[in-house]
Each structure stands twice: as C-alpha cells, then as structure tokens.
Amino acid sequence: MANPEPSSHGSDTKDDLLSSHKEKFQKSKDEYYGYDLYPEREGDTDMIKQGRDLQTVKCEKNVIWCAEKDPRIKLLMGALKSRGCPIDLGRHVSCEPCNFNVNGGYDPVKNQVVVCKNMSKTKNACCNVMAHELLHAFDACRAKVDFSDLQHLACTEIRAANLNHCYFLSAWETGIAYPWNFKEKHRECVKNKAILSVILVRNLPAVKAREIVDKVFDKCYQDLEPFGRRMKKGSRDAQRAYCDASLYGYTDS
Ligand SMILES: [Zn+2]
Predict the structure, then answer these.
(1) Is 47 part of any domain?
(2) How far is the CA of 160 from the centre of ligand 1 (A)?
(3) Assigned domain for 237 exists
(4) pLDDT > 70: what percent of the chain?
(5) Cβ neighbourhood burial of 230 (10 Å; 0-12, 13-18, 19+)
(6) Other C-beta atoms within 10 Å of 158: how many?
(7) Is 183 exposed, middle or buried (0-12, 13-18, 19+ CB in 10 A)?
(8) How many angstroms separate the alpha carbon of residue 114 from the centre of ligand 1?
(9) Which of 94, 117, 132, 184 could form a disulfide with 59 if both were Cys (CB 3.0 to 4.6 A apart)?
(10) What's the predicted TM-score (pTM) here?
(11) How buried is 13 (Cβ within 10 angstroms: 0-12 exposed, 13-18 middle, 19+ buried)?
(12) Residue 69 alpha carbon to ligand 1 centre in Å
C-alpha cells in the first residue's frame, strides 16, 4: 500500500480532474492501494533496468541536500527521532521511477518515503515531496495511523496539504486568493488537495472522497504538529518553526 502525492499541484481541483484520475487507476480489485504507481514495488523489471543511473544519483544527492539544508525536513526528522522513529536516509528514503501521475509516496508497510526520480528532479521538488511524505511518516509514528482506515488516511492527507502546500503566495499568484478571502481559499485548496490524494491512494469516487475529507476536515486542519504553524511561501516560517522545535522537545541532534 502506498500513499502517493499527486503530481498535479493545482489548487483548483475540479471534479472532472478527480474522475479522470479515478478512471485511470480503476481496477477490478475490491481494494486498491496505488502500488501500480510505483513499478519497482511491483517488480516491473523494465523500470528496474533503468535503475541506478544518473537520475538516481542526482535524486539521492537531492535527498541528502534536503535533509541537511531544508528546515522543514530537519524539523520533521528531529520530530520523528524524538518520537522514537529516527530516519536513516538510506533505509527510509528511496529514489524510484514512478507513474507520471505522482511525485512521491509513503509506503507504510515498509515505512519508506518514495521520491519519484523521474518526476521530482529539482532540489525544491525533492524537498517538497520529502516534507509531504515525512509528515505521513510522522503521523504513522505519532498516532499509529491505520492507512487502510479512510478517515485516518483523509486526516493525514489534510495535514500534509495544510502544512506543506497551498502557500499564501502561490494562491495569490494563481489569482484565487486575496487578503479578504485568503482563509477560505486556503481551506478550499487544502481540502481539494487532500481529496485528490485520497482518490489516488484508494481509487474512490470523488463524491465519496469528499464526504470522508469533509467529515474529519476541521479537526485535522487545526492540528499543526510538529510545525506549529502554516508556512508562507518565501517567508522564514520554516526556519522559525525549526528554531522553535527544541521548545517542543523536537531535536535533530
Ligand atoms: Zn499524501
């Protein structure tokens, strides 16, 4: 079972987009967990042959860079360590080729973050994927999330979107947020992103995914652990959160 981060970062998710994702991954199986998005996890040898190439090496370098330089990743790794789930990059982060619909994923069975080396090629993209997926790892460690429980899944997707995406400036740039409606637009963006993730992970109809996300939204939207704040793009929020982390017992040393 994997937990994909959709490659579409748009905040204007529409039902037709949602249903096209659903159609694409429609399976006859009763239970769907998105593993076909990560061919190496299913032993697709063609994809494995493309294996350790320059793309892998570059991806692994980016992973190390993010772990050393990105305050969000440093904070999350510290928080995971403080909760008794330390991250060993070689063991817990894997650079793999993926289906073109996803940038990354979290595999709760193997407790591994997947960075899609063919999709998340820049440092920035790699750090964003790691921040999103390590948040899932943090929830799995902290709250013993049951990823097969749709409400648990919806909650961790809401939290990952809330803490790592839908930045104020990106909403501003795309013309959907203004100072007078930012709060409402931010909630809407987080909700849409979470719905899309739930659809990808479990191949649910959009209506059902929306219903589950709505049910847990308010509670999970308010839960800002371990950052304690929502980040604004281009601000020093992430650095501030990292500096404050030791106050909450999260350290990376
Ligand atoms: Zn996710």
Answers:
(1) yes
(2) 6
(3) yes
(4) 67
(5) middle
(6) 27
(7) exposed
(8) 11
(9) 117
(10) 0.76
(11) buried
(12) 22
Task: Answer yes or no: is 163 within a domain.
Answer: yes
Q: How far is CA 148 from the centre of its chain?
A: 17
Quick one: average pLDDT of 45-74?
A: 83
- Give the total number of structural domains in the chain: 1
Question: Is 50 exceeded by the pLDDT of residue 21?
Answer: no
Tell me if residue 133 is catalytic: yes
Residues 126/62, Cβ–Cβ less than 8 Å:
yes
* Cα–ligand 1 centroid distance for 149 (angstroms): 14
The answer as to whether 253 is a domain residue is no
Q: Which domain holds residue 91?
A: 3-248
Exposed (0-12), middle (13-18) or buried (19+): which is 219, by Cβ within 10 Å? exposed
pLDDT at site 96: 94
Give 93's strand partners.
113
**β-strand partners of 95:** 115
- Is the model more confident about 185 or about 218? 218
Contacts for 182 with CB less than 8 Å, ≥ 6 apart: 168, 171
pLDDT of residue 139: 94
**Averaged pLDDT, 185-202:** 90
| Mean pLDDT (whole number) for 89-111 | 92
Name the most confidently modeled range: 32-36, 165-169, 190-194, 235-239.
Answer: 190-194
**Each residue of 107-116: pLDDT tens digit?**
999 999 999 9
User: What are all long-range contacts of 134-137, with beta carbons under 8 Å and residues at least 24 apart?
Assistant: 134/73, 134/76, 134/77, 134/80, 134/87, 135/76, 135/159, 135/160, 135/163, 135/164, 136/3, 136/106, 136/108, 136/160, 137/76, 137/80, 137/85, 137/87, 137/92, 137/106, 137/111, 137/113
Annotated active-site residue in 5, 133, 157, 188: 133
